[in-house]
Amino acid sequence: MRLNDDEKAMLDGAEGPAVAAAMDLLVRYGEALGADRLCDTRNVAGTMTQPSPVKASLVRAGGWAKAYAVLNLDSDGDFEIPHMRVPTCQLQQGFGDDALGLTPYPPAMIELQSDAESFYGNHGVTILATCTPYQVGNLPVRGEHCAWMESSAVVYANSVLGARTNCEGTASTGAAGLTGKIPCWGNHLSENRHGTHLIEAAVPVDGFLEWGMFGYFVGETVQESRPVVTGDLHRPDLADLKHFGAATASSGGVELYHVPGLTPEAPTLDAAFGGRAWPEPIRYGRRERRAVYETLNAQGDRTDVDFVLLGCPHASLDQIAAAARMLAGRTLYPGTELWIMTPRALRTVADRNGYTEIITRAGGRVLTDSCPAMSKAAPPGTRVFATDSAKQAHYLPAILGIEAWFGSLEDCVDAAVTGRWRGGLR
Ligand code: F3S
What we know:
CATH class of the largest domain: Alpha Beta
Bound molecules: FE3-S4 cluster
Strand content: 5-15%
CATH topology of the largest domain: Aconitase, domain 3
Largest sheet: 5 strands, parallel
Structural class: alpha/beta
Radius of gyration: 22 Å
């Protein structure tokens, strides 16, 4: 790997042992990936404060600096951790104290995370605590090199914003924050950003539910490739694209897609494929749509619903407002819980707008920082849950061993107030 003078100096210890360890990690990581250089980044998003038993024992044995060295730099060195060199933010983490008593989530983990927030916050990590940093202040510009974790955020950054990031990990983001460097390969290179597959929607894709189902089909079809989607696509909003990308990254491993005429690197179909010949289109029709719906509902058997989960990826303010409108003047079925996950910054706005009060009066909760999949926690006794998120329907049954129903926001709110799943594909 070729290093410039600044990078060589960091590797040789000019900025201290922690930065040298970070550069050493990035060089090893980059060489393993076949990268021949590093690129500069001023936008890092990782999951540094996420609590775990391993982190707890490292902190007990050697303090927070030791935990950073081992988990964020893959080093067993003993050194101080300096302030982040470039803007770095915290993605989703475990539940905070607003979830105390709501789930069997251990209070010791909440306490550990609170200490982590102090340590990382004092070292320059902005505690956004969400899988959707682009909703609350971290909005990279087109072409900006980033070092982000979280599959749903990565696909949004690459595709909707035209920023450039691979799906990074705990160690590479820990090293990137201290150096402002990340291996330059994969999605950072223009030649790797053109479409590989053409998917054509022969049924209308309109609204949150349909964009999520379409995304699930696209991800399953192309796996880790780069789809270009066309056909009967109705103009999506932020929430639709958030759901679409998260679904492509759940059934497959999509990190970048193009919608000609909509996403920034694809003004035309020709541009989406980089001027190369287009492949034969793969059709998404009535049969495929039905098959996706059945797959996402394959884990549902009993129709009595204990728990309804909205806000995966974390809900936008519009989504919270829509749920509040549907819940106004209604009451949740006794024994059925409803949670809406959102970034803490948006919850503050939801509080001011009165949405939280409407949802709370109905018996629901607006929670922050995490989600049941991330924290592996749901209301006690949950056996059957319902969600409007293809990603949660995909992961949560396996993580918690519970049944799942997937459907529209209307179906989910109906389940919350009746305690029954009565959804269906219309
Ligand atoms: Fe976010 Fe949890 Fe979904 S971290 S993308 S709400 S699985």
